[in-house]
Amino acid sequence: MEVEEKLIKKLGSGSLDFESYFSEKAMEMKASEIRELLKLVESSDVISLAGGLPAPETFPVETIKAITEEILKTHADKALQYGTTKGFTPLRLALAEWMEKRYGIPMSKVEIMMVAGSQQALDLIGRVFIDPGDIVVVEGPTYLAALNAFKYYDPEFLSIPMDDDGMIVDILEEKLKELKAEGKKVKFVYTVSTFQNPAGVTMSLKRRKRLIELAHEYDFLIVEDSPYSELRYSGKPIPPIKHFDDEGRVIYLGTFSKIFAPGFRLGWIAAHPHFIRKIEIAKQAVDLCANPFAQVIAWKYVADGHLDEHIPKIIEFYKPRRDAMFEALEEYMPEGVRWTKPDGGMFIWVTLPEGVDTKLMMEKAVAKGVAYVPGEAFFAYRDVKNTMRLNFTYVPEETIREGVKRLAEVIKEEIKALKG
Amino acid sequence: MEVEEKLIKKLGSGSLDFESYFSEKAMEMKASEIRELLKLVESSDVISLAGGLPAPETFPVETIKAITEEILKTHADKALQYGTTKGFTPLRLALAEWMEKRYGIPMSKVEIMMVAGSQQALDLIGRVFIDPGDIVVVEGPTYLAALNAFKYYDPEFLSIPMDDDGMIVDILEEKLKELKAEGKKVKFVYTVSTFQNPAGVTMSLKRRKRLIELAHEYDFLIVEDSPYSELRYSGKPIPPIKHFDDEGRVIYLGTFSKIFAPGFRLGWIAAHPHFIRKIEIAKQAVDLCANPFAQVIAWKYVADGHLDEHIPKIIEFYKPRRDAMFEALEEYMPEGVRWTKPDGGMFIWVTLPEGVDTKLMMEKAVAKGVAYVPGEAFFAYRDVKNTMRLNFTYVPEETIREGVKRLAEVIKEEIKALKG
What we know:
2 copies of one chain form a homodimer.
Chain A: H1 3-11, H2 24-28, H3 33-42, E1 47-48, H4 61-74, H5 76-80, H6 89-103, E2 112-115, H7 117-129, E3 135-140, H8 144-151, E4 156-163, E5 166-167, H9 169-181, E6 186-191, H10 205-218, E7 221-225, E8 250-255, E9 267-270, H11 273-287, H12 292-303, H13 306-332, E10 338-339, E11 347-351, H14 358-367, E12 370-371, E13 373-374, E14 387-391, H15 397-419
Parallel strand pairs in A: 1-12, 3-4, 3-6, 6-7, 7-8
Antiparallel strand pairs in A: 2-9, 4-5, 8-9, 10-11, 11-14, 13-14
């Protein structure tokens, strides 16, 4: 039989009942809607405000070239070999110093461990902390891929609404009181504290302090996911929640994806060594170690000061895009449409009048040549239908303006249809 | 308070009961004994035959330099950006072609997916296929990190003994009959089919074909882990089990760790697209995608023919080391000691007389200046005490000879003590 024929036969319907071999949990797994959605958009000439990608223009290619050349001369043995599960020690040390300098968090390398992007941190945290039924607090809306990562471990999500100052901590407190009365506890609160994905908002200083107090009072942990905090285009920096953590309750997640390049798949966990040790053991079984080649490159990037030099350049590149989106929203959006005004990050969150279903509206938008991410999937219980996430980092200003213009037209028609 | 003081306070005993936050499964997680062991050995002047590392001299540093320079010119946008979960399409295509050419397996890119080393493949396979209590067949001994990866998913291991022709498939058949009589089924058979880790043996052609027949007859899958098959120093190549798979029952795992560099943390799964699709969804929640930077480099490495050029060089480098270990074992080991005679790979498996406990003997060996891996942990039920794994790839010939000589002395004393 010819190779080609054999291949066709093998890939054909076949006799195996493939589904019958999957675990029960695998049967529940669903592909990320956003990723599926983006596949459709990719192949057309639609303006996509849907993505979550950094602009490739912000990747420091020349620096990477120089560093790579250097480390292949001086550190090839480390960069190309297996590494320890915790990560490349000089990089952990450099990150500890960087966090201390940048955020005023006293930090030692024993508190830092490297992971394959913060997505892996989310999965490992699920693995190490969540028992089925454990209560995990998330923001409403929250980072979709965090929901996906945690879901595998069967927590019960408690979704706390947000306003322009981030998670409404007073509402959390009420819920904590209720849970306490029922003899229940929260395992951890997950927050993207600064320039949140998807909402763009930042938790206020007052709420950060209050959240730490509540964590102590009601004995829960805080997972602070902070991929965007360095991308500040206006306003004053606020220290991370981790800054106020004297007990070791905060597990902080950092990533190189937005301040270096996502292609290195490199993030870090900063947490108490007791927690790091257990997460390290979990990671050992999962993939042995984070990419040593990328880690050695990242070490030079941080230790030689390239990171601090490069961040202002990313900010300079993104700020006009954010401003263009602000202006376009202001100019084109009809009455009844609201949006967040982030001081940084990558996303703006748009709320349409009640009754509009942005998921249903998506097809019309794509027909008009614009795409966004419907907000529904960002809510743990998918109970909000009239929101959407817009990205302003990937396409240039003029395209942003045109995209928002097209989107505004679709929304106007939708509102009209709703009233009519 | 000073930063230093704050740090000490934070890292001190503290008031948190850290253990109380861990999931039940996390409480069961144990660090890999081998990794812990190797930490001890690293810091002394002991000759370590314990490791499992490729020799850094085999890393094609100059090729990597040239490729990296090129792809940062031509493919920086792909290499530094997020990638799709399935992996970089040109690399998947190149691997499909390579496997077809090399192993005579008709293969399409839809059957290939990239992972962060084959360790991640093992974890994802556990996640996608194992329900608690599912029967997973392993070799006795088997790859330790596979046991660790699968264990999280609570399978029941069935350990099948091996001889010089690999897993004794007749014994497997008996067990399958017994299980069938009890109304039970095996979910999958896990085998490192060629130059096994830890035993070094290769499953014979006859047994490969019989295993595929049994898989059909008793309806189970086969996970064929094949990190070493390209490292053949003598004898004739045997096609992978996957070669005989007409139904899509074999999930084949490949890796760049032994034929390129482990520092890229890059492996691949070759399996029926039905299985690939589900594993892809599982991977999405776990870490989004394998390292695109490493993938683009690996693509050039395979597609431009460097892989095929480089494999003979690795073989040339390792063969004298294997031969040196064969000779030293022959020369120094006392009667009653047996070892495998691998045609390739990285390991030789040594069996001592009954009654010797290699784990207990380890301390004496280290005192004599040599280290090995006690065999116990490679058995699913830790029921064999008198075996050890020796690695011959990491240290040079003379060191191997000296290491084996020291080891033989320790063993002689141990046997003497046993008799006396």
